[in-house]
Automatic annotation (TrEMBL):
Residue ranges occupied by any IclR-ED domain in the UniProt entry: 70-253
Alphabetic keyword roster: DNA-binding, Transcription, Transcription regulation
Keyword Disulfide bond appears in the UniProt entry: no
SMART domains named among the record's database cross-references: HTH_ICLR
A Pfam family the protein falls into: HTH_IclR
Domain HTH iclR-type intervals: 9-69
Protein name: IclR family transcriptional regulator C-terminal domain-containing protein
InterPro entries named in the record: GAF-like_dom_sf (IPR029016), HTH_MetabolicPath_Reg (IPR050707), Tscrpt_reg_IclR_C (IPR014757), Tscrpt_reg_IclR_N (IPR005471), WH-like_DNA-bd_sf (IPR036388), WH_DNA-bd_sf (IPR036390)
Taxonomic classification: Bacteria, Bacillati, Actinomycetota, Actinomycetes, Kitasatosporales
UniProt xrefs under SUPFAM superfamilies: GAF domain-like, Winged helix' DNA-binding domain
């Protein structure tokens, strides 16, 4: 092992940090910028960039490094494992047209909630809900409806691990109040978050059929400006309910 080669576990951790840095950036990231973020030498960064680019996880681009083609394959594999079937995209498009709002397919698995797919354009940075790990589950409709579907012990573990940060003055941050909210969600069959994750947006979600406590649970949801939701909340809720029924009628989810 050379002086510039970090030890095994630390090397893996730094390689993953590099992937996170590139994934979160708006454009290519230079090696020097990575070294500053990681607090390590430039030679160490280049040592890690070698296998990441060779395996296709990153590519060299003007100004630095960008996500590579292997990322797309990993994303497709992840979608399969959390139950995204080909028909889900069609249902999301149908929901988008019927509701006039961006539509989302979200999954709970192994203590994590992920927005798996959506109709929102990836270039629209104004939309607060994007595919990827959901870090605001307690403040979103899809997070509420998924957490309402697991046992209280599982939910407690989830909240203990992820916390209940306050994002707006409407965010529920007390555990007992959150339990009361989820009881209401189970009773009415849908969840709503009015400005809890983002002050300007409201989201509405319903659980999809299938899944079991400890397994994979799914939800359909929409998000739209709160002022728009207030004027047509009945239409939006009916559109989501109609698309959820499409799953009951045979649209299906892979593995469900």
């Amino acid at each position: 092992m050379t002086a510039t080669t970090p030890p095994g576990p630390r090397s893996v951790d730094r390689a993953l940090e590099i992937l996170d840095i590139v994934a979160d950036a708006d454009g290519p990231v230079g090696a020097r910028a990575m070294a500053r973020r990681l607090g390590c030498s430039l030679s160490t960064v280049y040592h890690l960039l070698g296998p990441l680019t060779a395996r296709g996880h990153l590519v060299r681009a003007d100004g630095g490094y960008a996500p590579g083609p292997r990322v797309a394959a990993l994303h497709r594999s992840f979608q399969r494992h959390v139950g995204l079937a080909p028909g889900v995209g069609e249902v999301l498009g149908r929901l988008r047209r019927a509701s006039g709002a961006e539509a989302y397919f979200t999954a709970y698995r192994d203590g994590r909630i992920t927005v798996v797919d959506s109709t929102a354009p990836v270039t629209d940075t104004a939309i607060p809900f994007v595919p990827g790990p959901e870090v605001r589950a307690h403040a979103t409709a899809h997070g509420k409806v998924l957490l309402a579907g697991v046992s209280r012990s599982v939910r407690r573990r989830y909240l203990a691990e992820h916390g209940m940060a306050r994002f707006t003055d409407r965010t529920i941050t007390a555990a007992e109040r959150f339990e009361a909210e989820l009881s209401r969600v189970r009773g009415q069959g849908f969840a709503v978050s009015v400005g809890e994750a983002d002050p300007a947006y409201t989201c509405l979600a319903m659980a999809l059929p299938g899944g079991a406590d400890g397994g994979v649970l799914h939800a359909l949801s929409v998000s739209l400006p709160t002022e728009d939701f207030r004027h047509r909340h009945g239409q939006v809720r009916a559109a989501v309910a109609d698309c959820v029924r499409a799953f009951y009628d045979g649209a299906g989810i892979a593995g469900g």
